[in-house]
Amino acid sequence: MPSPKPAFVVLLGKEFGELFASRAWWILLAAMGPLVGATFINAVRTYGEASGLNGTSAGVGEAFAPLIGIWAPTFSACELAAAFLLPFVAIRVVSGDRMSGALKLELQRPMANFTRIGAKAVVLLAGWTIASLPTAIALVLWRAYGGALFPPELATIALGHFLNGGLTIALATAAATTTSHPSTAAIVTLAVTVGTWIVNFVAAVQGGWWERAAGYTPTAMVAEFQHGLLRLDVVLVALVLAIAGLAVAAIWLRLGAPTRSRVLSSVAAGGAAALAIAASATVRTSWDTSEGRRNSFSLADQAALHQIHDPLSIVAHLAPEDPRRSDLEHRALSKLRRVMNVDVRYESATSIGLFEQTADRYGEIWYELDGRQAVSRVTTVDGVLETIYALARVAGPREEDREIFRGYPLPAAPAGAAPLFYGIWPAVVAATAFFFQRR
User: Fold this and answer.
1) Could you tell me the fold of the domain covering 299-401?
2) d(CA 142, CA 415)
3) Contact between residue 350 and residue 379 where contact means Cβ atoms under 8 Å apart
4) What is the pLDDT of residues 345-397, one digit of tens each?
5) What would the pLDDT profile of 167-184 be if each residue is shown by its tens digit?
6) What is the pTM of this model?
7) Domain locations in the chain as residue ranges
8) How far apart are CA 308 and CA 313, in angstroms?
9) Other Cβ atoms closer than 10 A to 112
10) How large is the greatest C-alpha to C-alpha distance in the chain, in angstroms?
């Protein structure tokens, strides 16, 4: 007798049953407590000592941002789990039906393969959200200590790690359907993950288009979200990659189709994804959700820069591994791109710049605006802004007009966190797992 429930709802119920029966997911769930606990406890202890805990507060600065001091290191546990634990859960859920032969019976039901893969992805994302609950416990503890919370920046961090989990699930799902054994799928997934790290390494040495490509790797994406920067192009690229991974998985789920047909369909899906990524990369919309405006200039400087309508060209003669280039890029130019039409080029003869110090023009930063040029060697934010204001003949704001984020120093200890993360959480997970396994 047919079920009165829609087929997709029945499929979701079956997939949730598979998830709860998966030991890999329960191991992930149990491990998340100690992982988050270790990062949170260390972050709170460091933050408290820097705020004067067990010492003196004399000379302690006021610019304490929980976003960087607490939440970036705490949520880094989710990044670690997504790279090394979550893929095994996804591979187990996707490969389980094929290894047991249940997939052949399931394919007899008239339903699109993308819908089947979509159901697995929804369940895996739900499982990833549940596994991330220890971060919510960290939020409650921090609030109990008297710490400050700023919801927009926390929502941005959560979104970043949710997208990172989605990318991992899509990658593992595609690997599980295109390989013949779960162990092979795990190796393929790990190889792709390590490959993105290599791209980041090469980008740091070579710069150029490697640096632009590295901006869309999971590591770089998570880093920006953890600093409170929400870029629409990064979100779109992540969504395209996730959908492409699920599409490839759906293609290879057609067990009766010839291998050649599935390969050609996968290549077509990859080509469509490449075009979508290229289009998404041109989007320049972004939002700075950090309370201290870490990714933006002050409101006064931003208002002054908005008066400059001509495009600005900057040529910096700095090597990729020169510390001055990193300082210039992350402290000034990344913020400048968000408020002005600016074209930035880096030029150097070597990647380290060690033996270019005596070369002509090395270390110089050339600015060109409306036919006027200026040159400077200053890489600080104030130096860059002063040069641009002088070149544009715009009066910059006074120092007293620039707002200063004072932060929230908190000399608190991580009281009660260790028993909760190291003892109570694993015990509750073990008891719950025992209950579901018996059922």
Assistant:
1) Glutaredoxin (3.40.30)
2) 10
3) no
4) 998 888 777 677 777 789 899 999 988 999 999 999 989 999 999 999 888 88
5) 999 999 999 999 988 889
6) 0.89
7) 7-289+408-438, 299-401
8) 13
9) 10
10) 84
